[in-house]
Amino acid sequence: MTNQNDHLMGAEAHLTTVDAAEGFFRKLLNKNETVQNVVNWSRKWSFFQYPFVTACCGMEYMATAGPRYDYSRFGCELPRFSPRQADLLMVVGTITHKQAPVLRTVWEQMADPKWVISFGVCASSGGFYRNYATVQGIDTIIPVDVYIPGCPPRPEAVLDALMMLQDKVQKERRPLLPVVNS
Amino acid sequence: MSKVALDRLLEKFGDAVIESHANHGDETAIVKAERLHEVMAFLRDDPVTSMELLSDVTAVDLLGIKEPRFEVVYHLYSISKNQRLRIKAPVSEEDPKISTVTDLFKVAVWEEREVYDLYGIRFEGHPDLRRILLYPEFEGHPLRKDYEIEHRQPRIPAREGRHHL
Ligand code: SF4
């Protein structure tokens, strides 16, 4: 039975696309790469970030997103404003004790695998806000993969952190599928 | 600099003013707390002062410096006359309360809630006096000088091996 779209696309064109994709993955696998490496490779080049922006660091975050520094070169240009659709939580700015349960909930709502970048000294350690209101580092509440120092960090530092996270993801060994009752 | 607003206040409410000073257009009057509402109403409605805007309400904790311990500070601004006046009212530690000015200035609803939240000064007659910046389960008033500086009140426990400072 012929596909009714054959006259538009051509059966060969369809085959060629599949072949290309298959060949690409084969090439990766043939270089003594494991499936895990291929998966990690695709994960590290397509972060979907959730920007949890609370303070002045947000300006530098926007600068990094803009065309001059352009973090889309690292495959993470698309912010998702639902934690369900994101796998990279960027905590940008000061986190107060009042807000801590919200941050914790957002992190819990994200599906595995997920990573966290702590953007700026406020998120990393509380910064100069050593007082009754501020959480002294978000790692007291959620695990953090990469910390970016600076008040605010320069965009270069953010890109550096992204590359560090990519390296970290490439080296990861976690189950490809979540194992129930493991 | 002429001190129009302050002079007018001293002329009309000389007995309510404890102390006053003016320096380069920075006019301040310390008034008795029980006369505050009266004074504020006058300053708003009088055609000479016409203070239409209450730009800020705050407080000072003078622990160990002065008695009574607290001073509630009102910053008034006249848009039509372009003049400013600062009113302070002393409030004691044992009974930290003062009458509200929310009926004169709507904006005071939030400003007084902030002072209540951080200093624990009660505004009598306020329609909705509860915390505005901190969370409801917070205990104490952190801008008081005797609030323990390292005291933390986290809402969620720290992860294993970590601690809220
Ligand atoms: S680290 Fe500096 S720039 Fe960033 S949120 Fe804190 S104070 Fe603002």
Could you give the topology of this structure?
The complex is a heterodimer of chains A (182) and B (165).
Chain A: H1 6-9, H2 11-30, H3 35-44, E1 49-53, H4 57-65, E2 88-92, H5 100-109, E3 115-119, H6 121-125, E4 146-148, H7 155-171
Helix pairs in contact in A: 3-7, 4-7
Chain B: H1 4-13, E1 17-23, E2 26-31, H2 36-45, E3 53-61, E4 70-78, E5 83-91, E6 97-99, H3 108-119, E7 122-124
Parallel strand pairs in B: 2-5, 6-7
Antiparallel strand pairs in B: 1-2, 3-4, 4-5
Q: What kind of sheet is the major sheet of chain B?
A: 5 strands, mixed
User: How many structurally independent domains of chain A?
Assistant: 2
How much helix, percentage-wise, in residues of chain A? 40-55%
CATH architect. name of the largest domain in chain A: 3-Layer(aba) Sandwich
Please report which band the strand proportion of chain A falls in: under 5%, 5-15%, 15-25%, 25-35%, 35-45% or over 45%: 5-15%
Biggest beta sheet summary of chain A:
4 strands, parallel
CATH class categorisation of the largest domain in chain A:
Alpha Beta
Taking all Cα atoms into account, the compactness measure Rg of chain A is 20 Å
- The CATH topology of chain B turns out to be Beta Polymerase, domain 2
CATH class assignment of chain B = Alpha Beta
**Helix-and-strand structural type of chain A:** alpha/beta
Instruction: Give the overall pLDDT of chain B as a whole number.
Output: 91
